[in-house]
Amino acid sequence: MKAYIFPGQGAQFVGMGKDLYENPKAAELFEKANEIIGFRISDIMFGGTDEELKQTNVTQPAIFLHSVILAKVLGDDFKPDMVAGHSLGEFSSLVAANALSFEDGLRLVIARANAMQKACEAQPSTMAAILGLADDVVEKICAEVDAVVVPANYNCPGQLVISGSIEGIDLACAKLTEAGAKRALKLNVGGAFHSPLMEPAKIELQAAIEATNISAPICPVYQNVDAKPYTDPAQIKENLIKQLTGAVRWTQTVSNMLADGATEFVEVGPGNVLQGLVKKVSREVQTSSAVVA
Description:
Layout: E1 2-6, H1 24-37, H2 41-47, H3 50-54, H4 56-73, E2 82-85, H5 89-96, H6 102-122, E3 125-131, H7 135-144, E4 149-156, E5 159-165, H8 166-178, E6 183-186, H9 199-210, E7 221-222, E8 229-230, H10 233-243, H11 250-259, E9 264-267, H12 273-281, E10 286-289
Parallel strand pairs: 1-2, 1-9, 2-7, 9-10
Antiparallel strand pairs: 3-5, 3-6, 4-5, 7-8
Helix pairs in contact: 1-4, 1-6, 4-5, 4-6, 5-6, 6-9, 7-8, 9-10
């Protein structure tokens, strides 16, 4: 069984999607996106600077567009038995699986990026990658810290990203290092994604998600909040709303997809970070990047 997976923020690079533009269908979708966004995001993607691409209101739609347009131009070659996306990638996976229209998906991603940006500006906060400790140890120590800090991204065994206030992250990093973490590395991010500090963004995005039509997808979508497969539009919506303040359970998602019969994982979008994470869960499973023939 083929599982298609979609990357999240951090996978962007200058030149992303440029080769796709030669395909007439892709070019049409890029132009439609430029119109919806109100500036030529394709120009920034194909030939902008790293600095321009790093702005949240550019990064999130850029990764979404690269992933979704690639899936669309695969045509009949895109036959997923199951899909999943990491954080922002969940929106890409829903469009690729026909649960969301291209236009609605893009509008939601823009709304999400803007809401997250606002929440970041309202309260200085950050994230840190914890390497070499069991998940339950990280969970326990975060729970003991007397400040906002929570497990945010369960990326693969031995790699868990925590998220919270500056104070919470500093205290947790010190305790986790004491507990034997190989590294406790603060990340260069604008805020505490997937933590309670994203509550204002969640409220803002909730209204946009509730007003958007979501259909039954062509295959099960494994969602971040609990790593389980969904096909019911009402449940998909509910899980999307929870996603901004809930953890990304990627380790559990990959494990569940394998248990449900996935034999091959195809990454759709920029980079190959997710393939590396899949291999940390199962060395044997086949992984590849989606390419247009």
